[in-house]
């Protein structure tokens, strides 16, 4: 415990804590939208397809996360277009883009001349290596996402859950759906730096699932998701330090344990109430 407390004096650990707070806030907003609208699989497609942008950016000598952002946005808006037009089955389109992105990423990374980057850093991330520039980007995207939700909360909800009725009432459903696709893509990309492609989607689903054990209200799920997301992240960092294991995997493990414990307690209480 003493060793863990001593970490607070180091800049890298302070950056990790700040990043965990920002990602928890961002994931709470975007993740609640994803889970409530039941588009987790779509988000998985965006997450894995973004690896294609990372590979192409490496090959062209550009910032890999810029490539990931562009690829993620294109994938997110393409899936939204496909789902609205219905020319191709949505699950088929997601699977194609998912596989294509991963394949392109691997191909271009290995075609890059000279030093081949370590793929593990993108696949599994490292919140302890987050720098001030990463935090600045997280802060900007979190701020604009929160502002978007505050200003257009009702149209976002209406267009997500009852698009036909929203269209009749003059809500620009297409605009809000495409805007949310872009925000989902950006949230995923900035979180990849900390959690990695393989693990990042869990951060957008597990805290929200835990929060939904207490409430079904969209407004209440968000703050509860922030709380559970940050608690899981903090406990994960403690576990990573204590057992000397990867921080991203430790965070997801603790988020899962947190969900299972609360779910178990809820089931026990429900069983007792029925017996009484």
From TrEMBL:
InterPro entries: ABC_BtuC-like (IPR037294), ABC_TroCD (IPR001626). CDD domains: TM_ABC_iron-siderophores_like (cd06550). The keyword Transport applies. Pfam families: ABC-3. Its main location: membrane. Keywords: Membrane, Transmembrane, Transmembrane helix, Transport. It is found in: Cell membrane; Membrane. The chain crosses the membrane at residues 12-32, 39-59, 65-82, 94-115, 135-153, 174-190, 196-214, 221-243, 249-269. It is a multi-pass membrane protein. One of its GO terms (biological process) is transmembrane transport. GO terms for cellular component: ATP-binding cassette (ABC) transporter complex. PANTHER family: ABC-TRANSPORTER METAL-BINDING PROTEIN, METAL TRANSPORT SYSTEM MEMBRANE PROTEIN CT_417-RELATED. Belongs to the ABC-3 integral membrane protein family. This is Zinc transport system permease protein. It comes from Alkalitalea saponilacus. The lineage of its organism: Bacteria, Pseudomonadati, Bacteroidota, Bacteroidia, Marinilabiliales.
